[in-house]
Amino acid sequence: MFRRTSIAQQYEKASDCSLRVLVCGSGIAGLTVAQLLRRAGLHAVLIERATTVSAGYMLALLPMADPAIDGLGVRDEYRRRSTPITRYAVDGHTGRRLREDPIGTVVGTFGEYRGIDRGSLVEVLAGGGSDITMGAAVSTVTQRRDAVRVGVAGHGDGEELDFDVVIVAEGMNSHTRELLGHRVRRVDTGWGGWIAWADPDDEEDLGEELWGAGCFAATYPVAGKLGVFLGGPRTDTAAGPAAFFEAMRRRVTTPTDRIERAMAAVAAADDPYYWPLTDVRARDWTLGRTVLLGDAAAGFLPTAGIGAGMAMESAWVLSRALCGGDDIGTALDRFERSQRPRVAAAQRNSRQLARLMFRRSRLLASAREALLSSVSVERALGPIRTILATSP
Fold it and tell me: Do 42 and 17 form a contact (C-beta atoms < 8 A)?
């Protein structure tokens, strides 16, 4: 997977390339763009602030991730490590099944919709190995006319390195983005929840969500297991997963067997990861020779299941722009003008879904269920289909 090495060793390789590229952050966006650039002959220097790599939980990838996967030549391994999601079910606030739709026939026009755990995806993207320097963080950034001078904490004794372009892909709470002075706007839903694993069932192609009144539960299949999210208003989840599960179980009187098992799995987990449901949007992506990528540019709520796919698409578009032969300013400007509207549309859709999903009132939940019963899956997935139908 990752090959831990010093930044000096990476920089020596980068110095022989036509562009010296620094990628800050080894998440999905950062790893994808680093590997795409390396495949194109540019040894991007990849650094990670953390000292260990997090395995993470479940991801659902829409077909906008396909160009990056194909660009890395890992299609077969990706399909081997993931599972197709062809059906999607929504349950109402009592647990009763409202509808089940064949999303494969709707999205399948553009490619596959597949579930994969984050650790497996990282291994797929890293391929035979990806050079990385762990425990390294940008400490200083000086923009120059012909380069970006970067100080990296833990590297040398106050030594700085020059790069032609710096890609900031450190996630929603990016340290380097703040260091550069980017302005961001955050949206806080006031909700949050826990993520855990449950044993798989025999419906390996089904994603299921329960849209409750003051609660939300979801299950997404990956290879060999079931990813689970259980959440609600943070004022309620503050009681902890076991207490929240008991309160939710009193409200959800007729859950499906899968949702019942999923809720119990979160309650029984030793230390489930808690996710405050917020997002972030940077006002600008580019600043001189630096550019934001993935969640550092626009961090998504998980409601539309599109964030990871958009991050990989953005990484692919950026790698193509940097390898296109234009000067850095032109390449970064072309990337932002091409990709920013697509990312903004996807993020807007995830925010709209959050306003629909995250409701405490039973009256509003009942009205929402009447709406869900009357809307076709084609219309419900309309914003996503529009994005998939156009190329960046």
Answer: yes
